[in-house]
Amino acid sequence: MFRKILIANRGEIACRVIRTARRLGVATVAVYSDADRDALHVEMADEAIRIGPAEAAKSYLNIAAILDAAKASGAEAVHPGYGFLSENPAFVEAVEAAGLVFIGPSANAIRAMGLKDAAKALMEKAGVPVVPGYHGEKQDAAFLAGEADTIGYPVLIKARAGGGGKGMRRVERPADFGAALESARREAESAFGDGRVLVEKYMAKPRHIEVQVFGDKHGNVVHLFERDCSLQRRHQKVIEEAPAPGMTAEMRAAMGAAAVRAAAAIGYSGAGTVEFIADVSEGLRQDRFHFMEMNTRLQVEHPVTEAITGLDLVEWQLRVAAGEPLPKRQEELAINGWAFEARLYAENPARNFLPATGRLSVFDLPDGARIDSGVRAGDLITPFYDPMIAKVITQGSTRAEALAKLETALEQCRVGGVTTNAGFLARLCRLPAFAAGDVDTGVIGRAGETLLAEPDAPEEAFALAALSALGFLGAPADADPWGEIRSFRLWGEAAQTVFLDHGGAEHALRVTTLGQDRFRIERDGLATDIRLCVSNGRSLQVDLDGHVLPAMVHSERADIVVFFAGHSHAFARAEQASHHGEAAAGGDRLSAPMPGLVRIVSVEPGAHVAKGDPLVTMEAMKMELVLAAPRDGVVAAVPVAVGDQVAEGALLLALEPEEAA
Ligand code: ADP
Fold first, then answer.
1. Where is the Biotin carboxylation domain positioned along the sequence (predicted)?
2. Measured from the CA of 168, which atom of ligand 1 is nearest?
3. Is 3.55.40.20 the CATH number for 459-573?
C-alpha cells in the first residue's frame, strides 16, 4: 500500500478519499485553489498545497501545478476523484511519466471510452448492445439533420465528449433540429473544447441503469451490481438507488455480463461504471438495454453500491492501484438491502434550478444518514465549481425503509444563507410513481410545477420569524439567549408590531407577551400562541397549544430563516430588507443572476419583445442560462456585448418603461 497519496480534486470527493486513506494509514496531500484556501478538504488532509487561482482551468485542471505539488510532497500516487482531470488520458500519462501511480485505469482505457462515438463503435464490436443512431465522423448540419430523419424523431443530440448532461439536446421535430444542434455544439465547445456530436434515437420510456465494475492489474474483472439513476432532471441525476427496482436475476446477470465484457475489452483496472439505457415501455426486458457510455472513474453515486455490498470502493481503488488483486471474486459478492442517495445542490428549483451562491450561515445535516460533504457552516459557495454541497445516503433492509429514511433525512437538512433543493428532493421521495418503484427518466418532468414550488410558510413560521425579529429568541452569538426576554418582560404585557418581507410581500405581525416565555402572534386576523420550551442557541422546542415540536431560527442582519416541520422559510425585516435581487428581476431590467459570461445577445435596442422571449444567454457555472423577457415591451438599451464577463446583478438589458411601451 502507498504511504502517501495526493488527491487532485476538491469538495466532498476529496474529503471522502481522505477518510478512507486515513483509515488505511495512508497520508494525504490536498491541493487547493485560492477560492478554497479555507476549504474542508484542506483542513482534513495531512498537508495541502496551493495550485493556482480560483478558475478551475488554472488550478484543478492545471496538470503541471498538480505534478509539482505531488513531487514537493513526496506523494507516491494520485487520486483524481471525479470530474476535473479524472478522465483525461494526458493527465494519466503525465502522472506516470513523473514516476507516480495514477489511481485509476490506464490512459488507453480512458481514451477508448473517452468519446461517446468511438466507445459505441468499440462496444458494438465487443457484442454489447448500443443505442441506435449516428456516431460517425461527419458533422455538417444538413447531414446530421438527414441522419435524424432516418433515425426518426424524437432524437437526442449528444456531445461526443459530453458528461453531466452538458451539450445534450432532445429534439422533438425536424424544424427544431438546427437550433438545437447549434446550442448543443456551443455548450459542448465551451465545456469540453469539442463541439462534435452524435445523434441517437430518443427512447420513449427510458431507465438509466448502470453497472459498477472493478478490474485489477492481473486481468480480473467483476461487477458490483447495478444502480438505477432514472430520477433525473434535464438528463442529470438527482436521486440514485441500488439495486434497481423490478430487476430480475436474469436481467441482472445479463447486464452484469455485458458490463464485464465491456471492461475486459479494454483491459480495465480500477473502478468504472458501464451505463446502460433500458427501454421500459414494455417493462424491464433482457433484450431492451443498450450501452450508453462507460465512465472510467469513481462515480458520484458510488455510496449506494457501498451501502448494499458493505464494501469501501475507495479502498478497492487504492489496493488495485497498489498492485493487489481484487479483494473479492464475483461469487463472493452479494446484495444486502437497499440504498438511496440524493444530491443536495445550492440551487433554486423555483427559479429553473438556477445555481445559488453565498455564505452557508447554517449547515446542519441529519445524523440518521450518511452525509458526504465538502463544506461546513460559514463556507462560501462560489460560482467557480459544481454547486453540489452534499450527498445524503440512506440504507434499509427494504426499499420502502431506505426511502422513508431518505425522506426524513431530507426534511431534517437545515441549510441557511444559500437556497438548496432539499425541499424539492423531499417532495420527490413522496411522488407515488417513485415510491412505487415505477421509475423512468421522465418522472420528474411529468410531475410538473408542484414539485418546484416551496409550500407557503405556515403561521408558526411567521410567528417564529416575528419573535426572532424582535429579539425574543436571542442573538445567535448571544451566550445567554434568554437575556433579552428577561429584560423585555419588565415591560409587562406590551404588544409590538413588526413588519416582515416574505414571498415578495410585506406582512405585519403583532406580538403580545402573554406570560413567561409565552407569546401570541397575530397576522391578518389569525392568532398563533407559542410557548418557548427549550432554547439551545438557534435550536428551539416550541409548544403550540400542547403540541411540542422542534424548530430552528437563524438570523443574520435583516435575514431570518425559520426551519419548521421539514421546511425552511426565508423572511427579512421589512425596514432593512435588501431588495437588490428582487428589484433587478422586476419590470424594466434584466440583470445577471450570477457572475458569468455573455454568450448570446438576441435583440437590439428598439426591438419589440414578448414576455418569455429569450433575450440574453449567459454561461455561468458551466451552464447556459437563457434570460427571458420579464414582460412584453420594447428594448431600450443593451449595455453588454457577447464575450463580456459580468458580475452578479450587472444590468444586461433594459426595457422602455411600461407607459412608453
Ligand atoms: P452524460 O455523459 O452527459 O451524462 P449520458 O449519455 O450518460 O450523458 O446520458 C445522460 C442521460 O440522458 C441518461 O441517463 C438518460 O436519462 C438520458 N439519455 C441518454 N441517451 C438517451 C436516449 N438515447 N434516449 C433517451 N434518453 C437518453
1. 1-449
2. 3
3. no
Ligand 1 within 6 A of CB of 162: yes
Residue 650's region, left for phi above 0, alpha for psi from -120 to 50, else beta, is beta
Nearest Cα to Cα of residue 165 among 190, 188, 134: 188
Identify whether 297 is a catalytic site residue.
Answer: yes
Kindly list the domain boundaries of the chain, sorted by start residue: 4-103, 128-201, 206-445, 459-573, 589-655
Which residues have CB under 8 Å from 125's CB, separation 6+? none
Determine the Cα–Cα distance for residues 130 and 293; give it in Å rounded to an integer: 9
Using CA atoms, how far residue 258 sits from 127, 264, 291, 327, in Å, is 8, 10, 9, 22
pLDDT tens for each residue of 519-561: 999 999 999 999 999 877 678 999 999 999 999 999 888 889 9
The class of domain 4-103 in CATH terms is alpha beta
Q: Would you say the CB of residue 163 lies under 6 angstroms from ligand 1?
A: yes
- Residue 493: pLDDT band (50, 70, 90) is low
pLDDT digits (tens, 9 = 90+) for 157-189: 999 998 888 999 999 999 999 999 999 999 999
Probe target for ligand 1 pocket from 208, 238, 439, 440, with the most ligand atoms within 8 Å of CB: 208
Residue minimizing CA distance to atom 1 of ligand 1: 163
Angle between helix axes 313-321 and 11-23 (nearest 10 degrees) is 70
Q: What whole-number percentage of the chain has pLDDT above 90? A: 77
Instruction: Give the DSSP letter of residue 611.
Output: T
* Residue 563 grid coordinates: 426551519
pLDDT of residue 575: 65
Cis peptide before 605 (omega within 30 of 0): no
Mean pLDDT, residues 432-454? 92
For the 206-445 domain, the top CATH level (class) is: alpha beta
Q: What is the pLDDT of residue 490?
A: 40
Q: For the structural domain made of 128-201, what CATH number should be given?
A: 3.30.1490.20
Confidence (pTM): 0.83
Ligand 1 contacts CB of residue 366 (under 6 A): no
CB of 156 within 6 A of ligand 1: the answer is yes
Q: At what angle do helices 107-114 and 89-97 cross, to 10 degrees?
A: 170
Confidence bin at 450 (pLDDT 50/70/90): confident
Instruction: Indicate which residue's Cα is closest to atom 24 of ligand 1.
Output: 202
